């Protein structure tokens, strides 16, 4: 039991630190890249709207250049984070889970093979073993859900870039082909409105993604904590039944 408690403490500390660092770094990377695009779009819509041809050419060039840089930057850092995460997580996960399951399996075999123990203790150990199997499959599905949430955040960021490109194209098209000088001020307010709408949409999607990450992470940690508490309670019930009752 001492070895098992050491394994559990090491597992929980490393697990929480790795998950928090990876999710925070990915979230900050995506947020900073989007904020740079937002600042550029606001500057272009306010300061470069007077010169229509220069605004069109410069905004198109800067959009293509920065979108390529952001795409390379995001894919590079995401691949680095995911590779580090997968290598560390799989090694620690497999070693610790194998040691925990082997110790539990030996514990159950030892107590179910003893002749002096009561019948309901054996059924209790069998049900505990089935519960561990179910929890193992459930944790596997939760890891799949975490991967789906990561893919969902990447998909939402791509949708953000597409919406930004649409707003920028509409803005440049209207500014470049506006027919009357008095209509120019209306289009300027329209471009500011589109920029504010994009900011609101970006903040809303970032908030949903962050809530999804936080909910899945805390739910997964709570299930692990519940499992460990249940296992300690059953172990104490097997060793000291009069004190528990």
UniProtKB/TrEMBL annotation:
Keywords of this entry: Membrane, Transmembrane, Transmembrane helix
Protein name: Uncharacterized protein
Transmembrane segments: 6-30, 42-66, 86-111, 123-148, 154-177, 189-220, 226-244
């Amino acid at each position: 039991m001492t070895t098992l408690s050491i394994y559990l403490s090491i597992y929980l500390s490393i697990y929480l630190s790795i998950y928090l660092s990876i999710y925070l770094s990915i979230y900050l990377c995506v947020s900073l890249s989007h904020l740079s695009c937002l600042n550029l779009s606001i500057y272009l819509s306010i300061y470069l709207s007077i010169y229509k041809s220069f605004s069109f050419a410069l905004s198109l060039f800067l959009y293509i250049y920065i979108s390529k840089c952001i795409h390379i930057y995001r894919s590079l850092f995401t691949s680095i984070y995911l590779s580090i995460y997968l290598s560390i997580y799989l090694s620690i996960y497999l070693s610790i889970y194998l040691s925990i399951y082997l110790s539990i399996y030996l514990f159950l075999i030892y107590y179910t093979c003893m002749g002096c123990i009561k019948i309901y203790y054996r059924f209790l150990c069998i049900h505990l073993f089935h519960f561990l199997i179910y929890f193992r499959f459930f944790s596997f599905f939760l890891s799949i859900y975490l991967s789906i949430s990561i893919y969902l955040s990447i998909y939402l960021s791509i949708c953000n870039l597409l919406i930004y490109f649409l707003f920028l194209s509409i803005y440049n098209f209207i500014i470049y082909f506006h027919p009357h000088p008095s209509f120019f001020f209306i289009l300027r307010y329209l471009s500011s409105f589109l920029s504010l709408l994009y900011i609101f949409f970006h903040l809303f999607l970032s908030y949903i993604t962050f809530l999804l990450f936080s909910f899945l992470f805390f739910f997964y940690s709570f299930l692990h904590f519940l499992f460990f508490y249940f296992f300690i309670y059953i172990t104490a019930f097997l060793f000291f039944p009069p004190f528990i009752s």
